[in-house]
Structures are given as C-alpha cells and as structure tokens.
Write a structure and sequence with these properties.
By secondary structure, this protein is mainly alpha-helical. The chain folds into three domains: 77 residues, no CATH class; 81 residues, no CATH class; 62 residues, no CATH class. The chain is built from 14 helices and five strands. The strands form two sheets. Strands 3-4-5 form a three-stranded antiparallel beta sheet. A two-stranded antiparallel ribbon has the order 1-2. A hairpin with a 2-residue loop joins strand 1 and strand 2. Helix 2 packs across helix 3, helix 5 packs parallel to helix 8 and helix 13 runs antiparallel to helix 14.
Length: 273
C-alpha cells in the first residue's frame, strides 16, 4: 500500500455515529476507556449526551468529549472550546482582550452588527461570592475573569453558535443547581419513535435519484444515509449499496433542482422532483 493510499484511508475514517445504534455502541466503547474525563468513565449516558450536544454546536465526537463537561446533570462547554466555536463562526470578524489584575474586558465584532464590549472584574467576583473561593478563583483569578467576560460576549453575540450552552467555568460556580439524574441510554432509545422500513421496491424506485446526489458531489454517502435513516430504517444491504455509490466517479452536477430537497410523505416515500 502506497503513502497516498494510506492517506486516503485515513481521511475516510471517522468515529462520527450515523444513527442511534452506532451512537449507543460508540458511547459504550468510550465509557469503558481510560482516556476520557472522569464524567464519562462507565457512564455511556453521559457520553451520548455530550456527543449529541457537541454535534448540535458543530463539535466532532472526540472534540465534544474533551470540550464538554456534565455539571450537575447539565452539559456545559469549557471556555476555550466555546471561544473556538465563536471564532470559527462564518460571521465572526475580530475580537480584542484587555486583561488586568482586577478586570477583564473583551470586545467582539460580528459581521453586520455593531461590536459589543463585556467585562468582568474582581468587584463582580466579590459580589458573586467568588473572590477567595477555593480553586481557580484563588489560584488563577485573572484567567477566570477572562473566561467570564468571553462567555458573556459569546452568549450575547453568538447565541446561534452556542445553542444556549453555558461555559463550564460559569456553571461550576453556581451553588444552587440541584443534582439531576441524566437517565440511562436505554430510556433515550425507548423514546425514539418507530420508523417504517425501506422496502426493496421503495429503494429500487428511488435509488437513481439518491445515487445522483452522491455521484454529482451534492451529498456524501454518510450525509445521505443519515438523512434517509431519519425518515426510514435502511437495511445493512441498502447501507452498503449506498456506500458503494461513493466509489463511482463524481460528475458535474446538472442544473436541475436538487432532489434531496423533495418532500417525504407521511409513509416515508421519497418523492423526487
């Protein structure tokens, strides 16, 4: 095997689950590993919540496990990961930090909106009962003020990027959040509505339209499979066949309307335009 072949294989490899069954299996494997934060060891339910939370804000599974923590049953994101999401947002333009021993200020600019300024000071920390608190507020208060200022700016200017998730640094300081049972993975699985199977006739009827999406480069095989499995249950044979279409030569997309946007009726029937 040449170096180029190995590079192609490495590029195609992904741990991203494509359906609930794969997500459950992934969660069990990760929870049994020693290379994850303690919140996830032997807790596949926590793993599943973190991975799903990460997917909703654009983090890959392993990024989510490193960047998201479960605090009193609620997912929160570490400040560095939160700021990475802000800076990777397509409308992010620039920011500026101004940090002193007593106050941290951040100025952030989003495209099409005026810049905003958010600050957090040691006076704010004292009023919140944080000053002198054991932990990072004692060992590294300057960094904690910076994380608070950035968190406020991120939540105010980029709520669409964060989907309401708060920073770990902020949530960790809340004293009145009750302990909350996150439930088990089985409960999540049981709550999933039943989907109709994709019959062989239905698959054959629509396969040319689906195949065109992949072979014209409009959708990857995993994207198409994930969409279809949100509407119906594909068999292993059908999944393997769709993956096989990705090996065909990609041709330029025709000027016709995208059939992927066609509606699915209540029975799960795919209706190309």
């Amino acid at each position: 095997m040449g170096t180029s072949d190995l590079a192609i294989q490495q590029e195609q490899f992904s741990l991203t689950p494509r359906n609930l069954g794969e997500a459950m299996e992934f969660a069990k494997i990760i929870a049994s590993s020693d290379m994850v934060p303690k919140d996830y060891i032997n807790k596949p339910g926590n793993v599943l919540v973190a991975v799903q939370t990460g997917a909703e804000v654009g983090l890959k599974p392993m990024q989510a496990l490193q960047g998201i923590a479960v605090i009193n049953g609620r997912p929160a994101i570490w400040g560095d990961a939160m700021w990475a999401l802000v800076m990777s947002h397509p409308d992010f333009e620039w920011f500026k930090d101004d940090n002193t021993d007593t106050k941290s200020t951040v100025i952030v600019k989003r495209r099409g909106q005026p810049e905003i300024t958010r600050s957090f000071s040691m006076d704010d920390a004292k009023r919140a009962g944080l000053s002198g608190k054991a932990g990072p507020w004692t060992t590294n208060p300057k960094r904690m003020m910076q994380m608070r200022a950035r968190s406020f700016a991120a939540r105010d200017l980029f709520p669409d990027a964060l989907k309401g998730i708060k920073s770990v640094e902020e949530v960790s300081d809340y004293q009145d959040i009750p302990e909350k049972d996150m439930g088990t993975a089985q409960v999540v699985e049981a709550a999933r509505p039943e989907l109709p199977p994709c019959s062989d006739d239905k698959f054959e009827q629509n396969q040319q339209s689906w195949k065109n999406l992949i072979q014209t480069g409009k959708k990857s095989a995993p994207e198409l499979i994930a969409f279809l499995q949100s509407k119906m249950v594909l068999s292993n044979v059908q999944v393997n066949e769709i993956n096989g279409w990705a090996q065909k030569e990609v041709v330029p997309a025709p000027a016709a309307a995208d059939p992927f946007d066609a509606a699915l009726d209540a029975s799960g029937e795919y209706t190309p335009e």
